[in-house]
Amino acid sequence: MNVIARLPDAPQPPAHMPHESVPGDSRQYVTFHVQEGTYAVPLAEVQEIIRMPDVVQVPLGPSSIAGLANLRGTVMAVSSLRRIFNYPDIAHDDATRVVVINQGIPVGLVVDRMAAVVTADPAQIETVRSIENTVDTDLLRGMIKSADGSGMIMILDSARLVANDFHTERARSRAGERGADAPAAGPQAGAVQAGQADELQLVSFEVAGQEYALAIENVQEIVQVAEPINRVPGTARHVLGVVTLRQRLLPLVSLREMFGLVSAPLNERNKIVVVPLPDGASVGIVMDMVKEVLRVSRSLLDPVPALMQANTRGEIQGICRLDGGRRLVLVLSADALFDNETVRCAAAAGGPEGESAMEEVMGSAGPAIDDEEQFVVFRLGQEDYGVPIALVQEILRVPEQLTRVPRAPAFIKGVVNLRGAVLPVIDQRARFELEEMEPNDRQRIMVFTIDGIRTGFIVDAVSEVMKIPRLAIGPTPAMSAEQARIVSRIANLEQQRRMILLIDPDQLLERHEVGAVVEAGSDAVPACPSC
Asked: By the 8 A CB rule, do 186 and 452 touch?
């Protein structure tokens, strides 16, 4: 972020901006242009002036909000004065600036271009009373008259700008509305909870065209393969090397090489599945691609045929039959997978001895970060969102056709048959007021339980499972009541220059919408248990 001027607590003019000397009780104002008008805010209220930063769009916020930006570790809301004043948007250019004001929290105001710092005597300042009968003066404090009478500079009320734009107190109060009076769990709740003990939750992935899976409790996180991978001398072929993952050394193992499959170069689709070991260390398994999160009945897990067992060391604990047996998923045993001498040696490379051996190549790993939260990260539009992994029931591919339910609300895309039960599916793009997207094979249905009802939400893509330090997580600036309820926190990953909007799935539906989802499920054609 390019800072044009940072203003200290004492009122000092920003650098590179002309100004006059300060006589008597005169006041100084920072002035700027929006459309064809010239506006001002008191210099004492301006924290700094910066170039237009990269912003993260937040759904369901006021239309005047340009997005959220990282201001040296602080998440700052950026508001467009053009939108506040009902002027058309224009493309940002080299002249565009953000005036950062501080009303308890920093807020950025996007302006077309800066003008100057001016000094105004009290006699030059006109109150808004003379025009309030004909002009909306809610956002104005007054007007600075030019000495020659040729024009006026409108003084903005920055406190009211913030209050009107963000509705902070109202957002906070409404965010807590759902509580004691929330509706009781729906009729399917008991069945969902009772059935969970008989189900397996798996993360599936593909290697050399075959689908494998690990129990979700054995998956610590899923991350992108990143360079450099540092080779460890004297290790087996399937040990690719060591990488750094949040100040820790992580040894990488290729499942292709471990299972004697055809080698293939790494590319952007490869993912690292991080698996914890009993001794507290971790190993990353490099997969061709991660497919989905599955929740399947234990009755669908068959034992490994005896002939197949003779050629393995128990790495495959069972075969899961899906889609009527047309889709076979090999379920791996994490314990057996890493009860392997070469894998244990690779894991040791991530321990203290390995850190010493790799220090010259990679530097000190630094302190471990244990105070973390784990999220499933997905994409909607241009932004990343995260939900706590414990709240994700499963992740499914979007079927080619969804069954529409008559009289269902527009946000309900349809229903699908999920192992004999009807699953209502919601178009999350429509819920977040994003433009419609053509269906594609990257889209997924994320399944949550909301008020006891299993509900699916279509997202553009599920990208990774990641751990985020709690120190990087903070509250999202409250910009509207609905936004504050749904997106209450944000992860600000400064080193990655990335922000992730953290969603509370329980708040994705309003109370009356939960009822509509229940009704859609009950009105749908009963699912065939044998499908």
From this structure: yes
Contact between 34 and 112 (Cβ < 8 Å) = yes
Using the structure block, give the residue that is written with the tokens 């909000």: 65
CA distances from 400 to 205, 403, 406, 416, 439 (A): 21, 10, 19, 10, 9
For residue 34, the tally of other CB atoms under 10 A from its CB is 20
Query: CB–CB of 478/431 below 8 Å?
Result: no
Residues 86-113 have a mean pLDDT of 90
Distance, in Å, from the CA atom of 49 to the CA atom of 66, rounded to the nearest integer, reads 16
Q: Categorise residue 363: left if φ over 0, alpha if ψ from -120 to 50, beta otherwise.
A: left
In which element (H, E) is residue 69 found? strand 65-71
Dist CA 100 CA 109 (whole Å):
6
Task: Specify whether the CB–CB gap between 60 and 483 falls below 8 A.
Answer: yes
Name which of 21, 12, 73, 79 is nearest 47 in CA terms.
12
Q: Locate tokens 């997978």: which residue?
A: 337
Model confidence pLDDT, tens digit, residues 459-478? 998 888 888 988 899 888 76
**Which is nearest to 214 in space by CA: 283, 266, 124, 133?**
283
- Whether residue 282 contacts residue 220, with contact meaning beta carbons closer than 8 Å, is answered with yes
Is-contact 313 417, C-beta < 8 A? no
Q: Are 248 and 370 in contact (CB under 8 A)?
A: no
Could you please report the per-residue DSSP string of 120-159?
E-GGGEEPGGGTTTTS--TTEEEEEEPTTSS-EEEEE-HH
* Per-residue tokens: 209: 């065209």
CB neighbourhood size of 438 (10 A): 5
Give rounded-to-5 percent helix, strand, coil for the chain: 20, 40, 40
Residue 523: which region, alpha, beta or left (left: phi > 0; alpha: psi -120 to 50)?
alpha
> Based on the number of CB atoms within 10 Å of its own CB, is 513 exposed (0-12), middle (13-18) or buried (19 or more)?
middle
How do residues 163-209 score in pLDDT, each as one tens digit? 765 544 333 433 444 343 443 434 344 444 444 557 888 888 899 88
The model's pTM is 0.61
Spatial distance between the Cα atoms of 59 and 79, rounded to a whole number of angstroms: 14
Fill in the DSSP letter of residue 10. Answer: S
> Of 476, 491, 509, nearest to 172 (Cα)?
476
What the block records as the tokens of 383 is 């932004």
Token code pair at residue 111: 């302006």
Element (H, E) at 453: strand 453-459
- Smallest CA-to-CA distance from 101 within 145, 149, 42 is with 42
C-alpha Rg value of the chain to the nearest Å: 28
Name beta bridge partners: 477. none
Give tens-digit pLDDT for 236-273: 777 888 887 766 778 888 888 888 888 888 887 888 88
Q: How far apart are CA 126 and CA 145, in angstroms?
A: 7
Query: Which letter does DSSP use for residue 230 in this model?
Result: B
- Output the six-digit token pair for 81: 């004065």
